[in-house]
Write a structure and sequence with these properties.
- The protein has 403 residues and is α/β, with parallel strands linked by helices.
- The strands form 3 sheets. The chain has a 7-stranded mixed beta sheet with strand order 2-8-7-6-5-3-4, with helices on both faces. The protein has a 3-stranded antiparallel beta sheet with strand order 9-10-12. Strands 1-11 form a two-stranded parallel ribbon.
- Strand 3, helix 4 and strand 4 form a beta-alpha-beta unit.
- The longest helix is centred in the first third of the chain and has 21 residues.
- The protein binds pyridoxal-5'-phosphate.
Length: 403
C-alpha cells in the first residue's frame, strides 16, 4: 500500500496542479472538445481558448503572442531550438559549426547539442565557478565567430543558481551567434522578461509552474527563423504540427496568469524565507554546505551537501518518514550515488559530493511543512552518521580531508 507523503519538497521536479488550472481545463475535456482547426462553432471555441493561452504565456515573458509556440514539453522546446538552429546554419551554408553551452545545462540541451556531432558540428562547454555561475571571462574567450548558438540556462535545476544570461547573450550577439535560454526553473518563479534577457529563444515547461506535465512553449524572437522539427498539418503557423492539446494549453495559460499574480503579491520573498529557514536548520548540524550559497538563486531551490552521509540513503530514509525530495535533478535520480555533472562542474569538495540532496518548495508549501521536511532530513543525517565510521573519525580529529 502506498504511504502518504506528509511533506512535498520536490517542486523543482514537478509542481502540484493549481486548483484554478484544473478548473479552467475541465470544460475542454467535456463539452468544449473541438479541434481548433475546425471552422464550426466548437472549433472556433477551441481556437479562441488557444489564443487566450498564448496571450497569457506571452504576458508572463514580456513577449508578443506571435513569438510563442506551444510544444509538448520543455525538452521538445530545447531540442527544437538547438537542432533547428543547427539546421538553419546548414541551410544557410553558414561556416558556423560550433555550439557553446554552459557546463551545467539540463540534459535536454547537453544531449541535443551532442547529437549534432555526427553531422560535423562541435560542442564546447563553458565552465562555471564554485558557486555554479558561468565564468564570464572564459565564456568571452569561448564565443568565437564560428558559433551558431550559445545556450545558458536562466537558473539551474539542481542548485537554483541564476546565471548571468544578459551578459552571455550580449557576448553571443557580439559574435553573431544566436542565444538560447532554458527558463524552466524561473518562468513563474522570478520575473522573466525576454527583452531584458535579450534572448532569441527561451523554453518553459507547464509542470514546473502548476500546469500539467506534457505541455511547454518555445519563445522565438520575431525575425528569427527556426525550421520545424515536426512537419504535418501546419499547426502553430506551420512551425510545429500536430493537433493542439487544447485542455493543456488552457491549463498553461491559466498557470501563467496565476504566476503573474503570485509574483505581484510577493510570492518570491515568502518562498525564499522558507528555503533559508531549511538551510539554517541543516547547516546547524555541521559538516553541511549550501551549494551556490554565494550566488543569486531562485527562491524555492535548496541544494545541500553533507559530509559522511550518502544522498541516496538520505532520500530513502526521508521518504520512509514522509518527506519527498531528490538527490539532484529528478531526471538524474535513480542513478545511485553518481555525482551530478552540475556538482562536478562546481567542484564541490570530494568529502561532500556524495551527500547531496535538493529540497525544493513553492506556492503551496507552508512554513510548518518546510520545517517538517528539514527536521526529517536533519533526523536522517544524525541517524546515518551514527553508523558512519567516517563521521566518527571526523568528530575525533575535526578534519574532513581524505574522507
Ligand atoms: N530544463 C530544466 C532546467 C528542467 O528542470 C527540466 C525538467 O526537469 C527540463 C528542462 C525539461 O522539462 P520537461 O519536463 O518539460 O521536458
Amino acid at each position: 500500500m502506498e504511504e502518504k507523503t506528509c511533506y512535498y519538497a520536490d517542486y523543482a521536479a514537478t509542481t502540484p496542479i493549481a486548483p484554478e488550472v484544473a478548473e479552467a481545463m475541465a470544460p475542454y475535456f467535456e463539452d468544449r472538445f473541438g479541434n481548433p482547426s475546425s471552422s464550426h462553432r466548437l472549433g472556433r471555441t477551441a481556437k479562441e481558448a488557444v489564443r487566450l493561452a498564448r496571450d497569457e504565456t506571452a504576458s508572463l515573458l514580456g513577449a508578443s503572442p506571435e513569438e510563442i509556440f506551444f510544444t509538448s514539453c520543455a525538452t521538445e522546446s530545447l531540442n527544437w531550438a538547438v537542432k533547428g538552429a543547427a539546421m538553419q546554419a546548414f541551410f544557410d551554408a553558414s561556416p558556423r559549426r560550433r555550439i557553446l553551452v554552459s557546463a551545467v545545462e539540463h540534459p535536454a540541451v547537453l544531449q541535443a547539442a551532442e547529437s549534432l556531432r555526427p553531422f560535423g558540428f562541435s560542442v564546447e562547454r563553458a565552465p562555471v565557478d564554485g558557486n555554479g555561475v558561468v565564468d564570464l571571462d572564459a565564456f568571452r574567450v569561448m564565443v568565437r565567430d564560428d558559433c551558431f548558438l550559445c545556450a545558458v540556462m536562466h537558473a539551474n535545476n539542481e542548485t537554483g543558481v541564476v546565471e548571468p544570461v544578459e551578459e552571455c547573450a550580449a557576448m553571443a550577439h557580439e559574435k553573431g551567434a544566436l542565444f538560447l535560454t532554458d527558463a524552466v526553473q524561473t518562468a513563474g518563479h522570478i520575473p522573466v522578461d525576454v527583452r531584458r534577457l535579450d534572448c532569441d529563444f527561451l523554453a518553459l515547461s507547464g509542470h514546473k509552474l502548476h500546469a500539467p506535465k506534457g505541455v511547454g512553449a518555445l519563445y522565438i524572437r520575431k525575425g528569427r527563423t527556426l525550421p520545424p522539427l515536426i512537419d504535418g498539418g501546419g499547426q502553430e503557423r506551420g512551425e510545429r504540427s500536430g493537433t493542439e492539446n487544447v485542455p493543456y494549453l488552457v491549463g498553461l495559460g491559466e498557470a501563467c496568469r496565476l504566476s503573474r499574480e503570485a509574483l505581484a503579491m510577493g510570492e518570491e520573498k515568502r518562498v525564499a524565507v522558507l528555503r533559508d529557514g531549511m538551510a539554517q536548520r541543516l547547516l546547524s548540524l555541521g559538516g553541511c554546505r549550501v551549494n551556490g550559497e554565494g550566488a543569486r538563486r531562485v527562491p524555492g531551490i535548496l541544494s545541500v551537501s553533507f559530509a559522511c552521509v550518502e544522498g541516496e540513503s538520505l532520500m530513502l530514509v526521508g521518504d520512509l518518514h514522509g518527506a519527498a525530495f531528490s538527490t539532484g535533478s529528478a531526471c538524474a535520480s535513480g542513478r545511485g550515488n553518481e555525482v551530478s555533472h552540475v556538482l562536478r562542474a562546481m567542484e564541490v569538495p570530494e568529502a561532500y559530493r556524495n551527500g547531496s540532496i535538493r529540497l525544493s518548495v513553492g506556492r503551496y508549501t507552508t512554513a510548518a511543512e518546510a520545517c517538517g521536511a528539514a527536521e526529517i532530513v536533519a533526523d536522517a543525517v544524525v541517524r546515518l552518521r551514527a553508523v558512519s565510521v567516517e563521521w566518527e573519525r571526523y568528530m575525533s580529529n575535526g578534519n574532513l580531508a581524505g574522507i
